Amino acid sequence: MGVSSLVEPDAEGVRAEVRRGVQERRLRMLVERLLTADGVQAGRLREVGVRGGGDVSLDELWRLPFVTKQDLWDHYPMGFQVDRRIVCIHGSSGTGGRPTLVPYTAHDVDVWASVMARALGGAGVTSRSLIHNAYGYGLFTGGLGVHHGGMRLGATVLPLSGGMTERQVRLIADLKPDVLCCTPSYAIHLGEALRHSGVEPTFRVGVFGAEPWTDGMREQIRSLLDLKALDIYGLSEIIGPGVACESLDSQGMLNVAEDHFLVEAVDQDGKPVPDGTPGELVFTTLTKTGMPLLRYRTGDVATLAPPVPDSPRTLRRMSKVLGRRDDMLVVRGVNVFPTEIESVRLADPRVSPHYLIVEDRRARPELWVVVESAQPEGLRQNLTDALRERLGITCKVVVAPGGTVPRTETGKAQRLARWNEGRPPVAGLT
Ligand code: DLL
């Protein structure tokens, strides 16, 4: 498998200057739409002196106000909707149990299908493919996002949703799908279940996302499922999966669908950071109509990069998500992203994929790392040393028997728990 063809060459393959023209035109139209709707974002635009689309430009994007998740919560449920022609609503359960709801027009669903078709096409999926789609169907955008994109591409989609793993194993044996779409943690779970039942995996490629995962985990998935594992990124507020996706030829980074979703990376003060420097991703939905967002701060930290030189794909790229701004743990003054702990865990073959980081906030801040292993000999000390080397702090490592860490069959894997008082979130922390 080498280079995959472009699904929409006029969008994915145009020269950078041509795309910039399209983006600027769309930005101005977006600002017009927001001002006409006269909602929260219109008020903020007027505060910075914007009276019409002609007052904004890509060069001066930094002058325009941000939108944050807190803004969406403050105007829950639908305060950012600007078009009445809504055909469906998606969203995420969100942190702290506070949901975020996103209304889509038929036009938005069309954009979604098209960016998802591009994402799948870039991964080598074709109209002859059978896609085993184990992302959850429902309010969560994973299931239906892949569904829309797969159908747009002309592929066949098996809408399995998450869970009921035995049935999934049975269908893999019977139908021999060539494409797997699900969260990376479920891919591992499914891979283990296939191995356990003696069923040979039939996948050629997998498109995994919705939660952070590392290159080490990619290797683990590859060895369990014998497929090419690619990363897909997105968030409900912007559209769902398809905001950015790795392709076979994108050299480990994700092509951003930047003709629809303009991307910036900024520091904590909201100032742009140069390519290659980690920053918080900020997206502007250039073409959305139901709930368009201007400069939405995602909380996700990644680096940006230009396209691969001489590639037919001319979109800017983002790295894998390095962590979330609010998931960054500050332990005794040291910044730690859970993905760094994940990398250390993966480097040791004795450790199972199921683990939990516990941020102990009861007295002196401590970080516990609970892992499962069938070969516990010396492991606690080895992991403590490796973590100290990587993070610069001493973590309390607990090596527990298989089954200790709670599993997630559906939805996103929970890798981080907070321990503020009372009983520990998992057994064995003493
Ligand atoms: O997770 C959309 C999605 C579905 C993406 C399926 C990919 C595949 P939300 O539920 O709104 O939407 O959660 C969005 O999940 O802000 C990131 O923090 C995280 N996330 C999504 N994709 C990745 C990824 C979907 N590939 C939030 N790597 C985002 C790391 C990811 N984190």
Architecture overview:
With 430 residues, this protein is α/β, with parallel strands linked by helices. It has two domains: 9-18 and 70-324, Rossmann fold (3-Layer(aba) Sandwich), CATH 3.40.50.12780; 329-419, GMP Synthetase, Chain A, domain 3. Helix content is 30%, strand content 25%. The chain is built from eleven helices and 21 strands. It has helices at residues 9-12, 16-37, 40-47, 69-74, 106-122, 141-153, 165-175, 184-197, 215-225, 338-346, 379-391; strands at 86-92, 100-105, 130-133, 156-159, 179-182, 205-209, 228-235, 240-246, 254-256, 261-266, 279-285, 296-302, 304-305, 317-318, 323-324, 329-331, 334-336, 351-360, 366-373, 396-400, 416-419. The strands form five sheets. The chain has a nine-stranded mixed beta sheet with strand order 4-3-5-6-7-8-9-14-13. Strand 1 and strand 2 form a beta hairpin. Helix 2 (16-37) crosses helix 3 (40-47), helix 5 crosses helix 6 and helix 8 packs parallel to helix 9 (215-225). The radius of gyration is 22 Å and the shape is globular. The structure holds 5'-O-[hydroxy(phenylacetyl)phosphoryl]adenosine (DLL).
Question: Outline of this structure?
Answer:
The chain is of the alpha/beta class. The protein has eleven helices and 21 strands. The protein has a nine-stranded mixed β-sheet with strand order 4-3-5-6-7-8-9-14-13. The chain has a four-stranded antiparallel β-sheet with strand order 10-11-12-15.
- The portion of residues forming beta strands comes to 15-25%
Q: Percent helix among the residues?
A: 25-40%
- Name given to the CATH architecture of the largest domain: 3-Layer(aba) Sandwich
Dominant shape: globular
Query: Tally of extended strands?
Result: 21
Task: Give the termini separation.
Answer: 50 Å
Helix-and-strand structural type: alpha/beta
Give me the side-by-side strand order of the main sheet: 4-3-5-6-7-8-9-14-13
Radius of gyration: 22 Å
